[in-house]
Amino acid sequence: MRVCVGVRTQQLIHRVSIHPVRPSAAVRWRAAQTRLFCSPPTEEEKPRPSMLRHLTSKIKATGPITVAEYMREVLTNPVTGYYVRNNMLGPEGDFITSPEISQIFGELIGVWIISEWMGAGQPKQLKLVELGPGKGSLASDILRVFSQLRPVLGKASVSLHLVEVSPTLSRLQAQILTGNCSQEADAEDEPVYRRGETAAGLPVSWYRRLADVPTGFSIFYAHEFFDALPIHKFQRTEKGWREVMVDIDPEKPDQLRFVVAPSPTPASSVLIQADERRSHVEVCAEGGVIIHQIAQRIAGDGGAALIADYGHNGTKMDTFRGFKDHQLHDVLSSPGSADLTADVDFNYLRRIAGRDVACVGPISQRTFLKNMGIDSRMQVLLRNCSDASTRKQLISSYNMLTNPTEMGDRFHFFSLLQHSRLARPKTVQGLNMDKKSPAPLPVAGFTELSFS
């Protein structure tokens, strides 16, 4: 007997056993744009000033650089990059994300993944691929759900694949996910630069590029990943579209400034759509490449992708900003000392994904989590919790995740699926004209749960 996805998803949620609430950090939350920041880094953690010298030397040698190149250098330079050298997550870092706020977030993502695996016919192999795993909290919560729902997975072979450029964060992820059961590759150019195994025996592998992750049926997920990828900025002028560049201020040689390229650049010639109506546009070409890779893998090998980030549907213009010490920060000031981010253009991701896959969303985080049954999960947790401080923390975390004025309407969920997941049932031809093939299960999270 075929069960409605709403009932089945609810059953999965209720089968996740009660887990101790993650200890609350002594954090004073501040909602700024969609980021939550904590105490500033200590003097020992502050970046060295070499990033500015590196950039000014580069500009003097080759001329103004694109905003994309600026972001790439500032965030991921292998020597002085912000993400490479810092542990920016958590109470001792610069910001906190949803998985750190409440384990319920990761639990529901885990249920979503299992729901999509079931909707795809329960393949024998399941690769979980996370882009930008942060501290590893989200993966840890997902794997806990997988452990508790192991009977549902049956004999399926599950493996975890993490795409991470930061050596600092990869070591932290390995400690959280595998304890001491991981080791680094001997050669730096190895596609898999770290391997490990969870306490339950699930293999975990680390990669610097998505292209190095083995093919096969995969569920891709990315939380606050695409917002940090380099963007190109373009300005409409009387002479047509021109790219915004980063240059040295001639009056202040130790400072950077934005300038508009006097003539078309390769990026301004190919990345702007002919029907674009905005006067200022940000395009994340690197994000487009990754989405294209994911779409091709889903179309060829099966699977799905779930992207959670803050963004828009092709409507916003200037969203490039920096964050430091709880506050908005000038993106060109003290490069390497602050996080740089830009809202995700989901309309662009949808266009790049192409016709080989089906795109669902974006919908607000509030809607997605409620569709996934966060209210039911909260009721279970509160019913089994007698400690007043823990109950208060649960309610506060729930409010942070779902309140429209907090993160509820600022973050959005977007999914890539095989077309077969949404295909209408076909009527069987012949003598049994009244019979139809089974209808595909609605996509959990993007469809309101139903008990009918």
Automatic annotation (TrEMBL):
Pfam families (alphabetical): Methyltransf_28
Localization (cell): Mitochondrion
Swiss-Prot/TrEMBL keywords: Methyltransferase, Mitochondrion, Transferase, Transit peptide
GO-annotated cellular components: mitochondrion
Reaction(s) catalysed (UniProt annotation): L-arginyl-[protein] + 2 S-adenosyl-L-methionine = N(omega),N(omega)'-dimethyl-L-arginyl-[protein] + 2 S-adenosyl-L-homocysteine + 2 H(+)
InterPro entries to which the protein is assigned, alphabetical: NDUFAF7 (IPR003788), NDUFAF7_sf (IPR038375), SAM-dependent_MTases_sf (IPR029063)
Top-level EC class: transferase
Gene Ontology biological process terms in this record: methylation; mitochondrial respiratory chain complex I assembly
Classification via Gene3D superfamilies: 3.40.50.12710
Molecular functions per Gene Ontology: protein-arginine omega-N symmetric methyltransferase activity
EC number of this enzyme: 2.1.1.320
Superkingdom to which the source organism belongs: Eukaryota
Role according to the record: Arginine methyltransferase involved in the assembly or stability of mitochondrial NADH:ubiquinone oxidoreductase complex (complex I). Acts by mediating symmetric dimethylation of 'Arg-118' of NDUFS2 after it assembles into the complex I, stabilizing the early intermediate complex.
Similarity section: Belongs to the NDUFAF7 family.
PANTHER family in alphabetical order: PROTEIN ARGININE METHYLTRANSFERASE NDUFAF7, MITOCHONDRIAL (PTHR12049:SF7)
Name the UniProt record assigns to this protein: Protein arginine methyltransferase NDUFAF7
Gene name of the record: ndufaf7
